[in-house]
Specification:
Number of strands: 0
Distance between the termini: 49 Å
CATH topology: Growth Hormone, Chain: A
Strand content: under 5%
CATH architecture: Up-down Bundle
Oligomer: single chain
Length: 441
């Protein structure tokens, strides 16, 4: 067969793939390969994390639910410690290199945990589990934040509204695969074997980063911003200072802070239920994995067929407001009927709503900020501010419990918090649309 014939067949196959994908999401021919590598990248990252997540949750419960507040404090300190060296890498190295170094740092950590879990005693495993809980919580936010920082650097505001829902579906599919692996194997093999699978998936992500970064420059997806592989420059602490100087970024921080506080309330309730319902650690890990699996299946359907259409039809503000509105209703329902069924149902719907609507829309917010802020301020907000919200939620939960408030009382407290969050969402939506129009002029 001649080269021209092979090229014609390849072109026909590419055209068929484009037509099939366009039934789900509006994608232009020049964006297809970048979209494919973005999908593989986030699929690998989330598969890696969701293999670890149920193991982390089980280790957190095994170390004592009463100690979770201290683990959240350790997570916040870990985030604060990692942001300056990450910002230094961003300032000095091309993006493909500093992203690869960041992921391989976490791969080395995973391999260290594999060794420690093999040689430690039962008593030592409790402390290793606590360190692993903190580490996994840091790992999760960092690797996902770095992914989205690259996405908002590659795609502009208009592209992000079309494509981010579909890209998020790659994350959800990765979550489904990772959760399924752990749910199926947690009772049959040691956790260290699952950690090795997680490390391998992160190396796939590194490979995807390099291909995507080269491809984005070659295709000139952002022609107004040439030489995207040049070091970004700036100061080591500029992520922190910029996050607090800009009213827009302050409100993005507030959105994430309120989300984290309310999420932590629900997480502690889930931990209490698991501790009372399951005595066996393998059963408990499988329970956490099944919840993750259900959330990811619901999210995947929404991301593939609903998110992009809703975001373009309603705009950033209304789409961003869906999660605060759901939280307002959900906490109200818990206040009226504080049962396990209501709690678990609300948790599943809330997490699915976050991944399907709030998270991809939240990332659109960063498409209109300067490039340095996309990596540094975004990393600081996604990690330190997020974990500060965890911290506020964890200690508030403990304080409310000390005052004698149970599920009903905590749900009542969360209702006005959700109302403030809702107003914040509308403000952010209007501001983002205005900045996007100014950037397009």
């Amino acid at each position: 067969m001649s080269n021209s014939s092979e090229g014609a067949i390849s072109g026909a196959e590419g055209g068929l793939a484009l037509r099939l994908i366009n039934r789900i999401v509006e994608v232009h021919p020049a964006e297809m390969r970048a979209l494919g590598w973005s999908w593989l990248y986030i699929f690998s990252v989330l598969s890696s994390y969701y293999i670890l997540r149920p193991i982390r949750d089980d280790m957190g419960v095994a170390g004592g639910v009463q100690n979770l507040q201290w683990l959240f404090t350790g997570t916040l300190l870990g985030m604060i410690a990692l942001n300056p060296p990450f910002a230094a890498l961003v300032a000095r190295l091309p993006r493909a290199r500093f992203i690869s170094i960041t992921y391989r740092f976490f791969i080395a950590n995973i391999l260290l945990f594999v060794v420690l879990l093999q040689v430690a005693t039962v008593e030592q495993n409790i402390w290793i589990g606590r360190v692993f809980f903190i580490w996994t919580s840091v790992f999760n936010l960092f690797v996902v934040s770095v992914f989205w920082a690259l996405m908002v650097d590659v795609f502009d505001s208009a592209q992000s509204k079309r494509l981010f829902g579909f890209i998020s579906a790659g994350a959800t599919l990765g979550g489904v695969v990772g959760s399924s692996v752990t749910a199926a194997l947690a009772q049959r093999m040691p956790a260290s074997y699952l950690l090795l699978a997680s490390a391998l998936l992160l190396e796939v992500a590194v490979f995807s980063v390099r291909r995507l970064s080269r491809l984005s420059d070659a295709l000139h997806l952002r022609p107004s911003k040439p030489n995207q592989e040049a070091p970004i420059g700036g100061g080591t602490l500029s992520g922190l200072t910029h996050a607090f100087k800009s009213p827009y970024l302050v409100n993005v921080s507030l959105f994430i802070l309120l989300y984290a506080i309310t999420s932590t309330f629900l997480y502690f309730q889930q931990a209490e239920i698991a501790r009372h319902s399951f005595a066996d650690r393998g059963e408990r890990t499988a329970f956490f994995a099944r919840i993750d699996l259900l959330v990811n299946i619901l999210t995947l359907a929404a991301q593939l067929f609903v998110t992009g259409r809703v975001l373009r039809a309603l705009g950033v503000g209304l789409t961003l407001a869906t999660l605060p509105a759901l939280s307002l209703l959900g906490f109200g329902a818990l206040a009226l009927a504080p049962t396990i069924m209501v709690l678990v149902g609300y948790q599943v719907l809330r997490r699915a709503g976050n991944f399907a609507f709030a998270r991809p829309t939240r990332e659109v917010l960063f498409t209109v900020v300067p490039r340095e802020d996309k990596y540094k301020a975004k990393s600081f907000i996604d990690t330190v501010i997020y974990r500060a919200g965890d911290q506020a939620g964890a200690w508030s939960y403990a304080g409310l419990g000390f005052l004698g408030l149970g599920m009903t009382g905590i749900a009542v407290v969360a209702v006005p918090i959700s109302a403030v969050w809702l107003l914040n969402s509308f403000w952010l939506g209007r501001k983002q649309e205005r900045l996007a129009r100014e950037e397009g002029k």
